[in-house]
Amino acid sequence: MKRQQFDYISLPYLLIAPQLAIIMIFFVWPAAQAIYQSFMLEDPFGLSSQFAGFDNFREVLSSAHYATSAVFTLVFSALVAFLSMAIALLLAVKADGIIHGQSAYKIMLTWVYAVAPAVAGMIGTFLFDRSIGSLNHLLNATGWPFNPQLDVFDASFTVILVSVWKQVSVNFIYFLAGLQSIPRAVREAALIDCRNGFRRFWTVTLPLLAPTGFFVLVINITYAFFDTFGVIDTMTRGAPGGGTATLVYKVYQDGFLGADLGGSSAQSVILMILVLALTVVQFRVLEKRIHY
Q1: 25 versus 239: which is more confidently predicted?
Q2: CB 80 within 8 A of CB 191
Q3: What is the pTM of this model?
């Protein structure tokens, strides 16, 4: 392989300088500030501060509300990632088998990708509103006393449903691209060797789709942790009783609404460590089971 040489030694550094500046300004500097603030106790107006050691971390980790938020985040993220991936994979397999009208089918399934999370949350708010929400009336008509304003389970159901609906279109695009990249010769050979469609999918198609599935899993966990902020903020704002507040939303509530800068910074550091651990597990454990 021929090695690329630049005429000026400073040129490659100038080319990567904008990207490095963005990383420094939007990631390294805020992360350093969060670590610094997590060890400080500040007044709500930011006029004075004093060193507090690990007091902010001890207070956060002993809080029952934080434990509730952590459990909800884990359950919420697992359900959103699993359901959105499973539904998208099923739809992609069906779309891949359609011969006529495939374009219309793809457009119908992918238009949701253009909807922002906050807009999806507003749509969900109207659908589940107690007065005018059609889905609220439908669920109550089945005998389910559906009340997301007072019941944590019902409120969790609404934010999970809207979050899954928002993410299915993204997963569908990746899964369909992965299915269509499988060589036609491999498909025809599998069709000859195995007539059972489910067994053929499980033993041939799914292993070949594993690299795409791993990538989709990573972006789905990231989505469930961070990008669902808009859905929760517009639909429940963490209510009732903080039962639908994810860890990211609790950082916002305590830091921006509660003016607890030290506590919210400590939560940010804990969340950063948690996401780092999840990333290591994903790439060290799960990726070893995938063959490219």
Answers
A1: 25
A2: no
A3: 0.84
